[in-house]
C-alpha cells in the first residue's frame, strides 16, 4: 500500500438494478476495499414481472486517485444476496471489472439451479494472471459492472423466481483492491 493516501470517488452509479438513490458506495478507511449497499437490486420472473425484470445490472464508475508511481487492481470480491428458484429455473450472478479505454476485462460468474431457496455469499478471487491492472501514469476510471439474471426455464412463466443482491446489515458487495509500484 502506498504511504500517500489514495482516494476513491464515485463518478456514477447507474443501471436497472441500482436506480438513482438505491445504491450507496463507501471506501474503507485504508482504501483496501470498496463496499456497495443496494436497496432495490432484484431480478425476477413470474406473476407481476415484466419482460425486463428477468435481468438487472448495476454499473459503478469509480475515480481512483492513485499516488505517483503506484498502480492497483481488484483481486477479488464478495457478493451477498438471496435467491429463490423453483425447479427448472436458473439464476446467474456475474461481475466484470475493467478500466476506461481498456479492452482487458476480468469476468467472474456463478450459476444457481432450482430448486434453490437461500441467502448466498459468493467469494471471488481473481487469479493473478487474470487481474487487470490500472495503466501506470494514466488517469482511467475503474468500471465495475454486476448483473443478476433469472430464467424461468421449465418452471413455467408464472413461477415466482428471484435473485436479489440487497443488503440490510452488511454491504451487498465488497471489492478488494491491491496496490503495487509501477
- Secondary structure tally: strands: 12
N- to C-terminal distance: 12 Å
Structural class: mainly beta
**Poorly predicted spans:** none
Series of H and E elements: EEEEEEEEEEEE
The average pLDDT value, as a whole number, equals: 88
How many helical elements?
0
Please outline the major beta sheet. 7 strands, antiparallel
- Any idea what the radius of gyration is? 17 Å
Approximate helicity band: under 10%
Q: Note the overall shape.
A: elongated
In short:
By secondary structure, the chain is an all-beta fold. The chain is 0% helix and 56% strand. Strands 2, 3, 4, 6, 9, 11 and 12 form a 7-stranded antiparallel β-sheet that branches.
Description:
The chain is an all-beta fold. Helix content is 0%, strand content 56%. It has strands at residues 7-14, 23-27, 33-38, 42-45, 55-65, 70-85, 90-99, 105-113, 116-125, 142-151, 161-164, 173-181. The strands form 2 sheets. Strands 2, 3, 4, 6, 9, 11 and 12 form a 7-stranded antiparallel sheet that branches. Strands 1-5-10-7-8 form a 5-stranded antiparallel sheet, with no helix packed on it. β7 and β8 (105-113) form a beta hairpin. The model has no long low-confidence stretch (mean pLDDT 88).
Amino acid at each position: 500500500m502506498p504511504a500517500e493516501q489514495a482516494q476513491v470517488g464515485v463518478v456514477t452509479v447507474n443501471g436497472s438494478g441500482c436506480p438513482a438513490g438505491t445504491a450507496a458506495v463507501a471506501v474503507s478507511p485504508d482504501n483496501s476495499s470498496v463496499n456497495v449497499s443496494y436497496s432495490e437490486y432484484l431480478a425476477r420472473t413470474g406473476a407481476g414481472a415484466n419482460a425486463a425484470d428477468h435481468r438487472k445490472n448495476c454499473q459503478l464508475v469509480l475515480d481512483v486517485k492513485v499516488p505517483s508511481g503506484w498502480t492497483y487492481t481488484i483481486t477479488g470480491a464478495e457478493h451477498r444476496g438471496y435467491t429463490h428458484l423453483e425447479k427448472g429455473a436458473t439464476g446467474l450472478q456475474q461481475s466484470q471489472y475493467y478500466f476506461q479505454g481498456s479492452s482487458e476485462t476480468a469476468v467472474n460468474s456463478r450459476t444457481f439451479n432450482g430448486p434453490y431457496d437461500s441467502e448466498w455469499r459468493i467469494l471471488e478471487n481473481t487469479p493473478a494472471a487474470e487481474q487487470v491492472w490500472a495503466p501506470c501514469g494514466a488517469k482511467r476510471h475503474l468500471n465495475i459492472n454486476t448483473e443478476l439474471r433469472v430464467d424461468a426455464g421449465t418452471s413455467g412463466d408464472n413461477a415466482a423466481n428471484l435473485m436479489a443482491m440487497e443488503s440490510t446489515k452488511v454491504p451487498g458487495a465488497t471489492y478488494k483492491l491491491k496496490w503495487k509500484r509501477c
